[in-house]
Amino acid sequence: MPRADERQSELRGDSGELERGVEEKLRPGSLDEFVGQDALRENLRVFVRAARDRGEPLDHALFYGPPGLGKTALAHVIAREMGAPLRVTAGPVIERAGDLAAILTNLEPHGVLFIDEIHRLSPAVEEILYPAMEDGKLDLVIGQGPSAQTVKIDLPRFTLIGATTRAGLLTSPLRDRFGVIARLDYYPAADLVRRVRDFAEVDGANEIRAELARFALGRLEVDEAGFDRMDRQLLRALIEKYSGGPVGLDTLAAAIGEDRGTIEDIYEPFLIQEGYLDRTPRGRVATERAYRHFGVTPRPGVPGRQDKLL
């Protein structure tokens, strides 16, 4: 048994290393361990096996959808399933074409390159990526003006995995070069088993069981519908302050103290998809299902309300 002072030292000075170790332990290591996204997992299982049998890298893959659904974890899983080294970066980090060239030329054969927020690549960087994805070649321009020369460098065959929350911002030429394009959907209630690493670490657990997941979700203020505190705050403001709407997005953002872009990109997609919120030309409207969730009687005219005929 470690002494109390040693334990405190671990939690303070070595917290970064400890967290990394726990995260690695709890991260899914295979497609079998990945929770949710059943149809996508089964398709990837086929694609991975076929690529391994051919001795080729997996086709370039693009994962899109709301944040927090496991796009990064899925990239790690694919690399492990392929037995390939993984290089992780992000669109905003790759500022110049030379940055991308340095990454690509250092990839190992059949390696996996994961680019998060790939929609934020600059046009100049994106142009370098096209021949690398399509032909396995890197076209570099050396020098300027009349003396400039184009140098072609052969690259090892690799797999690019891109992730984005804004698929509509991807250019067509980039999107068309991905062989696998998949949307990650919100998890149904039955799959709401999140990797709550901090609670698992404190509890000394190497795996998250249902009891620990329920306890952790309660501590994180996630309810049975999958709402977190901000989801509930948004819907309550809509129902209690604005009689269910319609209300403009800027007004709603000011009422709950949140950025309109965050509401639009992170909170609204889930609420709309699950039937708790409607977007209308006049503004946002709470549906009957939202009223029922909070135990409030819907007012006449609420979307989804079935009024009885007298």
Q: Which helices and strands appear, and what pairs or packs with what?
A:
Layout: H1 4-12, H2 15-26, H3 38-54, E1 61-64, H4 71-82, E2 86-90, H5 97-105, E3 112-116, H6 123-135, E4 137-142, E5 149-154, E6 159-164, H7 172-175, E7 180-183, H8 197-203, H9 210-219, H10 229-241, H11 249-256, H12 260-273, E8 277-280, E9 283-286, H13 288-293
Parallel strand pairs: 1-6, 1-7, 2-3, 3-6
Antiparallel strand pairs: 4-5, 8-9
Q: Count every helix, treating DSSP H or I runs of 4 or more residues as helices.
A: 13
Q: Return Rg in Å.
A: 24 Å
Tell me, rounded to a whole number, the average pLDDT.
Answer: 77
Spans of at least 5 consecutive residues with low confidence: 1-16, 305-310
How many angstroms separate the termini? Answer: 72 Å
Strand order of the largest sheet: 2-3-6-1-7
Order of helices and strands: HHHEHEHEHEEEHEHHHHHEEH
Structural shape: globular
Helical amount: 40-55%
Portion in beta strands = 5-15%
Query: Largest sheet at a glance?
Result: 5 strands, parallel
Q: Could you tell me the number of beta strands?
A: 9
Specify the structural class: alpha/beta
